[in-house]
From TrEMBL:
PANTHER family: 1-PHOSPHOFRUCTOKINASE-RELATED (PTHR46566), ATP-DEPENDENT 6-PHOSPHOFRUCTOKINASE ISOZYME 2 (PTHR46566:SF2). Keywords: ATP-binding, Kinase, Nucleotide-binding, Transferase. Residues 20-297 form the Carbohydrate kinase PfkB domain. Gene3D superfamilies: 3.40.1190.20. The keyword Repeat does not apply. It comes from Bradyrhizobium forestalis. This is Phosphofructokinase. CDD domains: FruK_PfkB_like (cd01164).
Amino acid sequence: MTEILTITPNPAVDVSTSVDRIVPVAKLRGVGQRRDPGGGGINVARVVKRLGGNATALYPVGGLTGDLLRQLLDREGVESLTFPIAGETRQDFFVREISTGQPYRFILPGPPLAENEWQKCLAMLSALQPFPSFVVASGSLPAGVPDDFYAGVARIVKQRGAKMILDTSGQALVAAVAEGVELVKPNLREMRELVGRESSDAAEWEAAARTLVRSGKAAAVALTMGHLGAALVTSDRVLRAKPLAIAPVGAVGAGDSFLGALVYGLASGASLEHCFRQAVAAGAAALLNPGTELCRPDDIKRLAEQVVLSTAI
């Protein structure tokens, strides 16, 4: 077992292409096609692998699409730990309009999981020997999975003395944070769900993250704020980064790339400053690629030199 385990209850095969213009009724003939493994935790594991680390991805597989998902991860050298489900693993579709450069994202619902299926996931996690040092729970929950599923993951992780890192939304986010996690990575919408209010600027969002840390529900908050930049908040300091000046090509994978680089750095024992710098660079690097390609190590290295950090106590 590797030091990093990712859990993705609602994985997908992401299909991407480009068309000249998106118009109704007409046949829109794609220019090329690409298939990538998808889903929050799976993407985090892919980024860890690209950066030179190893991560095991735990996820359900169903039907021919599930078989394809596992094959795609095998090609990237990501170790899979899977359990079968009755439904067919979902596919998502991403189309870039060449004439405007605009990306379009079509996210399909995942297959529902029966109680014995999602319970199997928790049982597999609980039985791992040796247990990973970091467990990353990321992505949406499919139908049939209770809102407190990630909270159950958090309980197991704490019982085994490991660190839980969370990236999800809605009631699943609220329930898991109430249980307590090592690090949570919300965007502004998700932070709003956690604290129940709107903030007007980065300073107010950072203050909300500080309150969350002081409550003991999370040891750290990695807050991504779009045009406001990003912040990493712990009990004794706030690291801030302004957004990088890039020309986005894609619209997929920035958050997963950010988290993958951050977890890889933490598992490697790097300083918080280094981890945060690499994460900001990885999030921006993902937007330089079309479709579902995620970040590239060369782009991360180049962009990391442009990340300007500031610190507040």
